[in-house]
Design goal:
This protein is α/β, with parallel strands linked by helices. 30% of the residues lie in helices and 22% in strands. β19 and β20 form a beta hairpin. The two termini are 35 Å apart. The structure holds zinc ion (ZN) (2 copies). One zinc ion (ZN) is lined by residues 483, 485-486, 488, 501, 503-504, 506.
Length: 766
């Protein structure tokens, strides 16, 4: 695609007419939401009046066909580049946003994202602006009246009929353009005089977009604060605040890792830190995992701050747009949201907080594949602001950054109220008989005891469905039944009487015989939350139990309703996937059961042990948070595995001491950087050949410090009928990987329909 267009179409050049002056600049640099790593230059025609500013979206002709396309202006230059004739550039057709959507800081951040995550600048920019803002949802286009400047300066000297003179005077005094209806009302006239003014050329009409009056919920919710009961800080909380004070009050870049055990009161530290910056007229962004955006969390923020915006995935486009506008207008003190809230257009940012920073949901799995935690640290650095990362089980990358002094680690070792950490007992499943399914005898007995004592019970099993696999009984075949479109075993969902693929959501009826060898009587095995629910109901019929997983929590608000009922004591047993392990605080939970701690342990992923440790430690932390001590039972086939042993002892340091040397030995993160190249397409040999060709190119260009692994079929070798191969690049630091990718990507042409994706710092390795 060339940026200079020799055969430009006259349609885009309405102003052309031999006017030499108009053929000059200025010029706008435009990028597009496409995988094109280039800034295109366009001429800004004089007819655009205000011109074009960086951060605005514009419509421009693109490519040989000059199809109108939306792009982002990233810079404006007075001169044409490299002395090229101004008339050779295509012109900007129109400006789509006024004022600009993107400020200078966000332009810089997205440019960094583009180079770090190997996407185009336009793709990074497009991720920053929510769809509702791009569509300008909740606004309408109207016709407004304005007065040309020369008329405005001399209107008092004009001799006009009285009604016209009055209407013109009202319009001249108005700071904003007015609609015809507004002007009729203000000047107390009919539309006739206004039509006459337009015909005389004294008044012009412009098309403009304005927000519809917000109905219902206001963008920034002022209906907050009942009594601001601010708890007294514990000595540890006080010490952490003291350590952060210079950064909070001095607007300096610093990354703090608040490493606090579960129940140590990290949230209170966040709230206190935010109070400091809000008191100085600044704004704070708080990122939490989507699943933690519960009413309980939001209430804690509402109680302390008057103007907060909550950005969650259930917002309508119009609501999202309204929030965006009010944040950009400085009407919001605290923005609480999931991953993409890192891009909230806070113009007086004072602080960023990331709770549960180890969560993998902060990584976006589509282009641009950014990690919100790392983008947030970069944003804080560019805007010279402090950032707080909080976790009981920090990601090893974060741990290492603290160990080498890039981040300041602030430990919190005590639970609030000096409550003890819950005692964790391991149950070795290889010694237990599980006659009915998932609950061992010790776990049943513990449940009975806790329930009789009026305590509540949480059971975690990180697998949905009833049976987790269906297998052929014929010993010569013995295949599991897989999805037609994916290389994935199907899960049996008994309630819906269907086999479901958890990768592509395809559903099919249960086959009467093996699809491979036609053997009848297929075997069903493995236990999911649906089966656990049946088992719990049968074993504890006198108590109310509820299942919480993405099958039962389909409708918006259902998650909140179940949690509220559990909190109110209407439910005694809550069972579910890791959904129930995230940052919830229920004082009356006296028993937590982990039904199978090993679900993540044997994944083909170097983070398998870390994930297992985090999950068990986090769910164990859900108990013993009230006045009564908590108990945790963890069922496992691998009680001697260090990830499970350390989680049972609440021993993060012990886990790190085991895990880090392993990572170092293989140069895995946090000691090395990875980039994953994933090729996919409908024809397996074509994908494989392309990846082999890619390997040759990489080898030819790779410096010595980059090692290349693969290509090999990805662990999930087929998804939605597309075959997947991957290559892994590794080096000590990210820079050689970026340079290598830039060198190779420039003239890379996957044979259609093969697609190639690059994932820098991958979190998902399947
Ligand atoms: Zn599938
Ligand atoms: Zn078979």
């Amino acid at each position: 695609m060339s940026l200079v267009n020799g055969k430009r179409q006259a349609a885009w050049f309405a102003d052309e007419g031999g006017d030499e002056v108009d053929a000059e600049g200025p010029f706008a640099g435009i990028v597009f939401n496409r995988p094109i790593d280039q800034v295109f230059t366009y001429r800004i025609p004089a007819r655009l009046g205000q011109g074009v500013r960086p951060g605005q979206r514009v419509r421009v002709p693109l490519g040989r066909g000059n199809k109108p396309a939306v792009g982002y202006c990233v810079r404006v230059d007075p001169e044409a580049p490299e002395g090229m004739a101004a008339s050779r550039f295509k012109e900007v057709i129109e400006v789509l946003d006024d004022p600009p959507l993107i400020d200078a800081a966000m332009l810089e951040l997205t440019r960094w994202m583009a180079s770090y995550y190997a996407c185009s600048w336009g793709q990074a920019l497009d991720a920053v602006v929510p769809a509702g803002v791009k569509k300008q949802a909740g606004t309408k286009v109207g016709t407004f009246l304005t007065v040309p400047d020369e008329v405005r300066q001399s209107f008092e000297t004009l001799s006009l009929p009285t009604k016209q003179a009055e209407a013109l005077a009202v319009l001249c005094r108005s700071e904003e353009p007015l609609t015809v209806a507004d002007l009729c009302r203000l000047a107390k006239c009919a539309s006739g005089p206004i039509t006459a003014l337009r015909q005389r050329g004294l008044v012009r009409t412009v098309r403009r977009r304005l927000a519809k009056a917000a109905n219902g919920e206001a963008a920034s919710d002022g209906a907050a604060s009942d009594a601001k009961a601010i708890p007294t800080l514990t000595p540890e909380q006080t010490a952490v605040m003291a350590a952060m004070t210079p950064a909070l009050e001095g607007d300096e870049f610093a990354t703090f890792l608040i490493h606090g055990v579960t129940g140590s009161g990290k949230t209170e530290v966040y709230l206190s830190a935010i109070e400091r910056v809000v008191a100085r007229g600044r704004e704070a962004i708080v990122l939490v995992p989507e699943i933690s955006l519960t009413p309980q969390t939001i209430r804690r923020f509402r109680r302390r701050f008057g103007k907060i915006a909550v950005l969650h995935s259930h917002l309508s486009d119009a609501e999202r747009h309204r929030h965006w506008r009010s944040i950009a207008a400085g009407e919001v003190q605290v923005i609480v949201g999931a991953r993409s809230a890192v891009f909230a257009p806070a113009r007086r940012l004072g602080l960023i907080v990331i709770d549960e920073e180890h969560e993998s949901t902060f990584k976006q799995e589509t282009t641009p594949r950014y990690h919100a935690r790392d983008v947030a640290v970069k944003r804080a650095q560019l805007e010279r602001r402090p950032i707080l990362l909080g976790s009981a089980t920090p990601a090893l990358e974060t741990w290492r950054n603290a160990a080498v002094g890039r981040y300041v680690r602030l430990p919190m070792r005590e639970r609030v109220g000096a409550r003890p950490m819950p005692k964790v007992e391991l149950i070795d499943l290889s010694h237990e008989r599980l006659p009915l399914g998932g609950l061992s005898e010790p776990l049943r007995q513990a449940m009975t005891a806790a329930l009789k004592d009026n305590g509540q019970v949480m059971l975690m099993l990180n697998r949905r469905g009833f049976h987790t696999f269906v297998i052929c009984p014929n010993p010569r075949c013995n295949q599991v039944v897989k999805c037609h479109a994916c290389d994935v075993a199907l899960t049996y969902h008994k309630g819906r009487r269907l086999l479901i693929c958890h990768t592509c959501d395809a559903e099919r009826p249960r086959p009467s015989a093996c699809p491979n060898c036609r053997a009848p009587n297929l075997h069903y095995g493995g236990i999911g939350t649906e089966r656990l629910e049946r088992e719990v109901e049968a074993a504890f019929p006198e108590y109310v139990s509820r299942r919480m997983d993405s099958d039962t929590m389909r409708t918006p608000g259902s998650h909140e309703r179940v949690l509220a009922a559990f909190r109110a004591g209407e439910i005694q047993i809550l069972l579910g996937t890791q959904m129930i392990a995230k940052g919830l605080d229920f004082p009356n939970v006296t028993l937590v059961g982990v039904v199978n701690a090993d679900t993540a342990l044997h994944m083909p992923d170097f983070r398998a042990a870390e994930r297992t440790f985090q999950l068990v430690a986090q769910v164990a932390g859900r108990t013993g948070r009230g006045d009564r001590p908590g108990r945790v039972l963890v069922q496992t086939f691998a009680p001697d595995h260090y990830a499970i042993e350390c989680a049972a002892r609440h021993d993060y340091d012990g886990f790190v001491a085991h895990e880090l040397p392993e990572r170092e030995r293989f140069g895995m993160p946090p000691f090395g950087r990875l980039a994953r190249l994933i090729g996919r397409g409908p024809d397996e040999p074509v994908v494989r050949d392309f990846m082999e060709e890619l390997l040759e190119r990489l080898k030819a260009a790779a410096p010595a410090e980059v090692t290349i692994q693969g290509p090999a079929p990805a662990p999930i070798s087929k998804i939605r009928n597309l075959f997947r191969y991957h290559l892994r690049l590794r080096s000590e630091s990210p820079r050689p990987l970026q340079l290598l990718w830039q060198a190779v990507a420039a003239d890379l042409n996957p044979p259609a329909p093969v697609e190639l994706a690059i994932d820098v710092d991958p979190v998902n390795l399947l």
